[in-house]
Amino acid sequence: GPGLSLDGTLNSLQAVRRRFPELSPRVCAGFMSCGRLALLRMTLKAFVAHMERSEPDVAYEIAWVDQGSGPDAHNVPREVPIEHPLLWRVNYGVTYGLNTLLFALCRRSRFAMTMEEDWLWREERDVVP
């Protein structure tokens, strides 16, 4: 099955979404990053795989604020379907980034969850006993 390879890359996961863009999202998954785009890619792909496999009835959208990761950040939305990518050239800080995610990019959804690029989505931890 899907998992991490020895070099830390995510293998055998594809970021394929049944509905994109989501027109009536119930949940907004908000991500922030500053560098560490490899971790962001792994987390996004694992999140999409989980939602498509385990939560197929939940209408979700993805919002992403990047704070100065450089030119490679422009490739991420080509690899993972993201409704609201926002790429800043500089780091404006966590507070400004979260406010932008929650009050601007995620405003259409009833619920929002936030993650950073180093909060790796681990499938074995998706259910709390």
**What portion of residues belong to β-strands?**
15-25%
Major pleated sheet: 4 strands, parallel
- Report how far the terminal alpha carbons are from each other: 23 Å
Outline the low-pLDDT stretches.
1-12
Taking all Cα atoms into account, the compactness measure Rg is: 14 Å
How many beta strands in the DSSP annotation? 6
Which strand order spans the largest sheet, edge to edge or round the barrel? 5-4-3-6
Q: Please provide the ordered H/E string of secondary-structure elements.
A: EEEHEHEHE
Morphology: globular
Q: How many DSSP helices?
A: 3
Q: What's the pLDDT, averaged over the residues?
A: 85
- Please bin the fraction of helical residues: 25-40%
Structural class: alpha/beta
Q: Could you please describe the fold and organization of this structure?
A:
The protein is of the alpha/beta class and 129 residues long. The protein is 26% helix and 23% strand. It is built from 3 helices and 6 strands. The strands form 2 sheets. It has a 4-stranded parallel β-sheet, sandwiched between helices. A two-stranded antiparallel ribbon has the order 1-2. Strand 4, helix 2 and strand 5 (84-88) form a beta-alpha-beta unit. It starts with a strand and ends in a 13-residue tail after the last strand. Residues 1-12 have low confidence and may be disordered.
